[in-house]
């Protein structure tokens, strides 16, 4: 890599790191948050989903802004907004204020991931791009997995509030690197953003998720449930319909005419819905079931992190050489097997025999999956639209996680006891396997570069 490329890669990794880290670091802090601020399972779901709603809805807008007005500008806006929101969350004195601050944080986080990935795709090409995406994937996905460990240490040794303040460190580092790089953005005159579409998308998702979260408390027949559910669905359908004719759509539907793009996004929905469900259920159950302290609950996922660090960049390189289809098939199915291993968990709890084998198997599957998945989706779209392509894929991943978490009470049967833990493991496995089958049936490997001829003409 050239010096500039290394700097770009570090900026992309750090810029995305905080969004992925915060998305999971909160999971291990949820019991401590509800103990201090109250609210029980419903508040825990909203602390997660308030972030995911604005992240999933506005990430599409951020992708359009990134392509139209510049990746560096969007990245700076996201970093500063995320830092301010993190400080507000750490200072929250009520669950309502914390949930609102989490929504603001999600909105800022929406500006981080698309612009970060777009920086990579615009500065790397060919095999180097696949390797760079593999490194980015290893680091950012490791942030998702190591988040519970960091959160657990902070919750046990200090306060859950520090789990959010820690975001300030990578944010400051990224802003310094951006200043040192003296990057310049190219702005396209006449570009505009579909803010009406953004509002429709956000309100549509918000209404439906509100109904899914509150339904176990009120029932489907309650007007407070079916009215926002119906209104949310109508608004979201209106958002999709609007994207067909608006001049500057935030969700360009023509992207979904590309086979690897739409198939990859369907697989993404299954896989990331499962990851969000599993990540939340494991760290919360280990604290509320066997009664592990937050630090040990966070340490449970450490083997996945280690495996991701060692294998993900290699998987990205292998995918660039042999194509993504094999890895996108085998990886999710392997994770599904790992999820089923959680069914060995009993009331006589043993981390080493009941949880660790699952973490190892899921770590291998995750490392094989994520970089090839990202490369397949972004590689199917021309570089000029890499920002919006990345945004769409990340929106699909976040919305899938949003829906999975919103359905948590339905999946576990109202309480996260051992039976609920087992039910969540089965649903996780089914979603993972569905992602692998989707990839096998739909993904096509790009044509390989012809091998250079071994024959030579003597002169």
Architecture overview:
The protein is mainly alpha-helical. It has 2 domains: 3-183 and 248-442, MFS general substrate transporter like domains (Growth Hormone, Chain: A, Up-down Bundle); 195-247. It is built from 18 helices and no strands. It has helices at residues 3-37, 40-69, 71-90, 95-109, 113-123, 126-157, 162-165, 168-181, 195-218, 223-242, 259-288, 294-299, 302-322, 325-340, 351-379, 386-406, 408-412, 418-442. The model is unreliable at 451-459 (pLDDT under 50). It holds the Pfam family MFS_1. Residues 8-447 form the Major facilitator superfamily (MFS) profile domain. The chain crosses the membrane at residues 7-30, 50-66, 73-93, 99-120, 132-154, 160-183, 195-213, 225-241, 262-286, 292-313, 325-345, 351-374, 395-416, 422-443. This is MFS transporter. Keywords: Membrane, Transmembrane, Transmembrane helix.
* The CATH architecture of the largest domain: Up-down Bundle
Count of helices?
A: 18
Distance between the ends: 37 Å
**Major β-sheet annotation:** none
Overall average pLDDT: 83
Domain Major facilitator superfamily (MFS) profile: 8-447
Transmembrane segments: 7-30, 50-66, 73-93, 99-120, 132-154, 160-183, 195-213, 225-241, 262-286, 292-313, 325-345, 351-374, 395-416, 422-443
Membrane topology: Multi-pass membrane protein
Protein name: MFS transporter
């Amino acid at each position: 890599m050239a010096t500039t490329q290394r700097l770009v890669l570090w900026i992309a990794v750090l810029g995305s790191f905080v969004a992925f880290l915060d998305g999971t670091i909160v999971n291990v802090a949820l019991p401590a948050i509800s103990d201090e601020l109250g609210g029980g399972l419903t508040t825990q779901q909203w602390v997660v989903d308030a972030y995911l709603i604005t992240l999933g809805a506005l990430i599409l807008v951020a992708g359009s802004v990134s392509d139209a007005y510049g990746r560096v500008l969007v990245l700076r806006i996201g970093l500063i907004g995320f830092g301010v929101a993190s400080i507000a969350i750490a200072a929250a004195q009520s669950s309502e204020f914390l949930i609102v601050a989490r929504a603001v944080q999600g909105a800022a986080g929406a500006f981080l991931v698309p612009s970060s990935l777009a920086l990579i795709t615009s500065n790397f090409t060919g095999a180097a791009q696949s390797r760079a995406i593999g490194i980015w994937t290893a680091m950012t996905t490791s942030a998702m997995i190591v988040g519970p460990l960091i959160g657990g240490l902070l919750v046990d040794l200090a306060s859950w509030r520090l789990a959010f303040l820690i975001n300030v460190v990578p944010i400051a580092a990224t802003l310094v690197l951006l200043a040192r790089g003296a990057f310049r953005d190219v702005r396209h005159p006449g570009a505009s953003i579909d803010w009406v579409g953004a509002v429709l998308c956000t309100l549509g998702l918000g209404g439906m998720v509100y109904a899914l979260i509150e339904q176990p408390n009120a029932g489907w027949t309650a007007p407070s449930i079916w009215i926002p559910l119906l209104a949310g669905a109508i608004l979201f359908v209106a958002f999709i319909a609007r994207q067909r004719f608006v001049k500057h759509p935030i969700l360009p539907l023509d992207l979904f005419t590309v086979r690897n793009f739409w198939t990859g996004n369907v697989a993404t929905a299954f896989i990331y819905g499962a990851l969000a469900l599993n990540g939340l259920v494991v760290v919360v159950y280990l604290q509320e079931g066997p009664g592990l302290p937050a630090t040990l609950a966070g340490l449970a996922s450490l083997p996945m992190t280690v495996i991701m660090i060692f294998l993900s960049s290699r998987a990205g390189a292998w995918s660039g050489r042999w194509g993504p289809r094999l890895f996108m098939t085998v990886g999710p199915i392997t994770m599904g097997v790992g999820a089923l291993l959680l069914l060995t968990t009993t009331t006589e709890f043993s981390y080493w025999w009941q949880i660790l084998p699952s973490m190892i198997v899921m770590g291998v599957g995750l490392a094989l999956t994520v970089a090839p998945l990202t490369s397949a989706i972004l590689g199917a779209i021309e570089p000029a639209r890499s920002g919006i392509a990345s945004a769409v894929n990340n929106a699909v991943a976040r919305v899938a996680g949003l829906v999975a978490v919103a359905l948590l009470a339905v999946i576990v049967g109202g309480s996260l006891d051992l039976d609920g833990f087992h039910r969540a493991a089965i649903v996780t496995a089914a979603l993972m396997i569905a992602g692998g089958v989707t990839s096998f049936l739909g993904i096509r490997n790009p044509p390989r570069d012809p091998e250079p001829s071994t024959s030579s003409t003597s002169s």
